[in-house]
Amino acid sequence: MPTGARPTLTQFLIEERRRHPGATGELNALVTDVSLACKAIARKVAFGALADMISAAPQPAPGVNVHGEEQKALDLFSNQMFLRANEWGGHVAGMVSEEMDEAYTLPPQYPRGKYLLLFDPLDGSSNIDVNVSVGSIFSILRAEVPGEDAKPEDFLQPGTRQVGAGYAIYGPATMLVLTLGTGTHAFTLEPQLGEWVLSHPNLSIPEKTREFAINASNSRFWEPAVKRYVDECLAGQTGPRGADFNMRWIASLVAETHRILMRGGVFMYPRDTKEPGRAGRLRLLYEANPIAMLIEQAGGKASTGRKRILDVQPECLHQRIGFVFGSAQEVARIEQYHEDEPLDSYHSPLFGKRGLFAATA
Ligand code: MN
Ligand code: MN
User: Fold this and answer.
1) What whole-number distance in Å separates Cα of residue 289 and Cα of residue 295?
2) Using CA atoms, how far apart are residues 243 and 33, in angstroms rounded to an integer?
3) Calpha distance 69→62 (Å, rounded)
């Protein structure tokens, strides 16, 4: 075996399929197409600031996406890679992307398949200039009517209905982390063979952790439950938790998720009061749902802070949501604090009004 007894992605998918005698292999073909898009994006991202020099085809002009975020040339390239890799094969009936306002209708010449593909083609791209790890996130749902164009509302399925989810991370090593509902498995791209090789089967997130990740610059907008949780972590050994915690913040969802899958921890981008009327920062359909499935399949928990992410009924394609995930015990504790604390009820006993994380501004 050229990969040293470790299965490739292709072998892994074939073996998974053998366990489901009714399976047609279409899901495997779709995952393979997605993984090809990720390889192409990995190569492009690796050129960094030189990427423009080597592109032969004229690039679409970057603008502003539906979320009001600046689009980078690499966002658009990555979006194109996902569309081109997946539109022709007859496996999908429609696609939704962070970088497109509307659901994507396949070109007329291609057959419509039985799955829906939802993706964030390049996550963390606002930080790409600093050469931090970025990635691509994807979610797979069943089409309502296989063989026909998907309607926009067909994508509004709760995350529990995902048949698969994953991300690729473009870091020092390129990796693909995948679940098809039977555990979460990580593949490392073997650069000489260009093959995904199973390097981390059956990932398992430790139940407990002493590490949390949150954007502390938003602390004045946090809800009482989040303030309480973070205050208690910061109080360390002398506080109610009786232990010192580490804080992490990469501002790249894929990189944060990867760290938590590899060694535990908890991530919070909770609902806050910064922009009233906006339920959170991250997108439900192509960020929170796929990450939540990967986390649960690895034994962790993923929540809005109040309820399980995968049970949320989506209302629109680009819906945002508060997102808390990671080690099961910590996520359960944060949910409990939300239940305990009515809004505006918590004032930090540790830091008071003059503290760094004061409850009132
Ligand atoms: Mn993103
Ligand atoms: Mn993105």
Assistant:
1) 10
2) 46
3) 11
**Residues near 304 by beta carbon (within 8 Å), at least 6 away in sequence:** 271, 280, 312, 321, 322, 323, 324
d(CA 10, CA 159): 26
Q: What is the pLDDT of residues 99-124, one digit of tens each?
A: 999 999 999 999 999 999 999 999 99
Is residue 3 exposed (0-12), middle (13-18) or buried (19+ Cβ within 10 Å)? middle
CB-CB contact of 320 with 205 (8 Å): no
Give the number of the ligand closest to the Cα of residue 125: 2
User: Measured in angstroms, how far is the CA atom of residue 317 from the centroid of ligand 2?
Assistant: 14
Q: Quote the DSSP letter at residue 237.
A: G
Architecture of the domain delimited by 9-200: 2-Layer Sandwich (3.30)
Domain locations in the chain? 9-200, 211-340
Q: Is 50 helix (H, G, I), strand (E, B) or coil?
A: helix
* Closest-approaching ligand to the CA atom of 98: 2
At residue 349, the 3 state secondary structure works out as coil
Query: How wide is the angle at C-alpha 100 spanned by C-alphas 94 and 101, nearest 5°?
Result: 100
Q: Would you say residue 359 has pLDDT above 50?
A: no
Q: What is the CATH number of domain 211-340?
A: 3.40.190.80
State which residues have CB under 5 angstroms from ligand 2, the bound ion.
98, 120, 122-123
Q: In this structure, are residues 235 and 348 in contact, taking their beta carbons and an 8 Å threshold?
A: no
Query: Do the beta carbons of residue 173 and residue 188 sit within 8 Å?
Result: yes
How far apart, in whole angstroms, are the C-alpha atoms of residue 97 and residue 118?
A: 6
What is the SS3 assignment for 213? strand
* Whether pLDDT at 262 is above 80: yes
Cα 120 to middle of ligand 2, angstroms: 5
